[in-house]
User: Fold this.
Amino acid sequence: MSSRTDVLLWARRITGLKKSTPHQLLEIAPDAGLDAAQEAFHKIARLAHPDLHRGLDPEELELVTSAYAMIANAYQSIRSHRMATQRLPKMDPVEGAAPAPVPVTPSGTAGVATGVAGAMSSKALIYYRKAELCLKRGDLRGAMLQLKMAIGTDPGSTFLRTALHEVEAEVRKGP
Amino acid sequence: MAIALGIDLGTTNSCAAVATPTGVEFILGSRAERVHPSIVAFPGSGGVVVGADAKRYRLTEPANVIHSAKRFIGQNIRAPLVQLALTGIRYKVTEGPNQQPIVTVRDRRMTMPEISSHVLLYLKRCAERQLGSAISDAVITVPANFTDAQRTATKEAGRLAGLNVARLINEPTAAALAYGFGRNQDQLICVFDFGGGTFDVSILRINGEIFEVLASDGDFFLGGDDLDRALAEVLAAECSRVLNFDPRQSPVLMMKLMMGAEAIKVHLSENDAAEGEIDGIDLPNGQVGSLPFALSRMQFEELIGGYINRTIEVTKQVIQQAGLQPSAISDILCVGGSTRIPSVRQRLAEVFRREPNISINPDEVVAQGAAIQAGSLSGAIIAGTGMGARDAVITQAHSPLLYGGAKPQAALVRPVLLDVNPSTLAIQTAGGYAERLLDKNSPIPIERTRVFTTARDNQTRVEIDCCRGESRRYSENEPLGKLVLEELPPKPRGDLKIEVSFRVDADGILHVRAADVESGQRQEASLHVIGAPAIGDGA
Assistant:
């Protein structure tokens, strides 16, 4: 367990880094993945979780809590990005965009941006939806198959081809 | 050194424990019981009776016996599910200030935190008698999906009972702590917490002393009470048919059928069939009748199938939210009395393709985790005189949890709980949309700041409506309250920059700040929470 001075120095440094990226805050490489982010977050939690510093003065504890809360937000932004890319890429609704009149999945992300889905045939859309379900289960190969079926019924859709390429890239990266 | 109590304040039952140098010690009631009914009775003869002793007034004075207060604490009485829950109780609840439910017994009006404070006070007194020392601090557990108002109201109940609530922790997280503390392993577990009134499921990664919740979800109005009610309805219909009398008009009789239903449910967890009679049914013609029943386990499972399906659906969703496959989970903890139902365990085994862990005590494990966290926060578990590292580990004799060669660690470190925010928190923006500030399942404590602007020219007042929920439309989410910024400098629309900060503290309570960026003038205001009692209100 770190000393009081260590954690206060750390907290002052972190709260001064207002403009930093999540990766910089967690002190990991810009291309580091979720596992590295999780390890970094655990390391910081062992050092600086406010519960471990309840003996500090209220002001000092507030400083440590603020710094820790910034780190938590940085970790969450890496996590949520990763969660989003586990679904079909480029499917994220644009921030602030009008909500599309489509069913909202339990995790709260609009399933398909209507403008994009409108560009494929209805039969392709059914396969596409199945692909989405596969991705939610983490079944990348199943998703590939469904996307190929979708392309079979609507060979002209560049959107479906892009989606397939991205899923294939995920498969190549391995588990 | 101050002793801090760990309390599992349940819908139907509560349990309390303390971490001592030799292990976790449970707080016993007057009959040496470890589990205390969360029932507060105000008998006609006067006084307040809590726990096992209060139970016996249920049949004689149902209107004076307050049970399931947790279903109403911190709730907006106008919420549809609350209205539905109100149909199942036999005491009087009316709308009080700030849309909060108020209990009336004879001419005495009480808030829900007041009712819960009687249960907490009872546990505090039992603990003080048992330990021979005054207790001022406590860690209280709450369902993972408890809202801000429910958490605030629970803290208020603690305060009314004379307890300093050091922390509110989520029930599944507490169970995981009791399970994983001192094991020093890296593993992924699922906590399936199906209690008397609430249902939660959490996926955690235990990495040494770190307990990180990866995802959590649940249903606040789903528990053993609902299963009992489903069965009681069947019994009531049977009563109408056999005895030609509809018992739904009689609160006493419905309570009797509820108690009968609970007994049948418990019996069917151990046996394939239940057969017998519910007697002592007072009929309108002055006679006393009895209602015969015969129910097989399969019939019962069919009756409650819808509820069980719901728990399994939520479990699958949570695994998905954690970005995992069921096979990655190395242990499934069954917490809460309703996990004793065989079909629940069987369905869980089907999802995970492994048997759930039933070697833990589903009624006590949450209080045990709360006690460990209470000990950790008060410093009692690691430091202090005469507390060797070996002794500070929960010993086998006291713990139903440590088994299978888990060896005490040489140097004990304090556990670090990384819990999550149970639902997305957002504010209303122009056009009625919900703009998200904090995601569901974000680690807490957390803070995020975003910049917003005005929609009209020369706008000098901005209302920031906060909500929780997953919909992109503000109106489809649950409103939390509003923050008002006034006397802003008049500017063309889009020029004024307003910084809104959401912080969720380690208790899971939201704090909102807003400021006009340019003037640097921090116009802070606190959130007016709907449904929560004002401090010292209604006493």
Chain B touches chain A at residues 167, 205, 207, 209-210, 212, 217, 317, 320-321, 323-325, 376-377, 379, 413-414, 416-418, 424, 429, 431, 433, 435, 438-440, 442-448, 470-473, 503, 505-506 (CB under 8 Å).
